[in-house]
Amino acid sequence: MKFDLHTHHQRCGHAIGKIEDYIHSAIKTELDVIGISDHSPFFAEEEDQAFAGSAMAKSEFPSYISEVLLLKEKYQDRIEVLLGMESDFFPEHFEHYRKFYSQVPFDYIIGSVHYVNRFHIFDKKRWNNAAECDLLTEKEQYYQLIQQSVHSGMFDILGHMDGMKGCNPAVSDIQTDMLDLTLKVIADSGAAVEINTSGKRKECQAWFPSDDILERACHYGINVTFGSDSHDPQHVGYEREQVRQRLKEIGFKHWVFFRGRKQQRVAL
Ligand SMILES: [Zn+2]
Ligand SMILES: [Zn+2]
């Protein structure tokens, strides 16, 4: 059972191709399951499209849902299409987000912390003139937000969980107990951690999360899943087989995907 749960498309303003192009690519790479998980709109902002180029407009949300549901039906004999979303997590707004999600027949929601202290984690400017102590503070705040996102109970999957290293690989060398505390919180919640291969195309040139984090995740009995975080149909399933091999080497026995928000176990 081959799956990829993390894909975007042109609606967000920074990906190319239509949803259907990602489905075609998934069929071509012989996946059994393709999850569509575009970025959540900025529900708490007043404007319809507060940050064009970051996410779909609020008014696009219903058409996104109906398009994926239509394609799910259209392709049911060739591939299983799942309705997902990569949701931002803002501690001050999550109840507002929850209201929008509660009316939708999602298969799963990926919770991703993208903003720490108002800066996007993949924004290179945030690291200009940053001292080592800043890195520690930022890293701890980042993991604190991930813990809060887990406590919200809104998410089936945690997206790119050491994503902060993406544009500043040095962040990985900063030691903090917060990482292990976060892993314990995730283990208790039953949420899955995604191995996200898009980091290979960023400055860190590595998957999210790193192997050492995955080894600890395995020790704590955390479930894992896979997402290419494709913003181009060509990247669907990117390095899926290498991830599967690595997970087996680390000691994982299975990985999971979600159908109707219920976890499905697949042997590695
Ligand atoms: Zn994106
Ligand atoms: Zn993301």
Automatic annotation (TrEMBL):
Catalyses which reaction(s): L-histidinol phosphate + H2O = L-histidinol + phosphate
The pathway to which it is assigned is: Amino-acid biosynthesis; L-histidine biosynthesis; L-histidine from 5-phospho-alpha-D-ribose 1-diphosphate: step 8/9
CDD domains on file: PHP_HisPPase_Hisj_like
Q: Is Secreted one of the keywords?
A: no
Q: Which InterPro entries match?
A: Histidinol_P_phosphatase_HisJ, PHP_dom, Pol/His_phosphatase_N, Pol/histidinol_Pase-like
**SUPFAM superfamilies with a match to the protein in the record:** PHP domain-like (SSF89550)
Record-annotated membrane-spanning stretches:
none
Where on the tree of life does the source sit, at the highest rank?
Bacteria
Q: Does the keyword Hydrolase apply?
A: yes
Q: Which UniProt keywords apply?
A: Amino-acid biosynthesis, Histidine biosynthesis, Hydrolase
Q: What EC number is given for this enzyme?
A: 3.1.3.15
The protein's matches in Pfam families, at most eight in alphabetical order, are given as: PHP
Q: Which family does it belong to?
A: Belongs to the PHP hydrolase family. HisK subfamily.
UniProt protein name: Histidinol-phosphatase
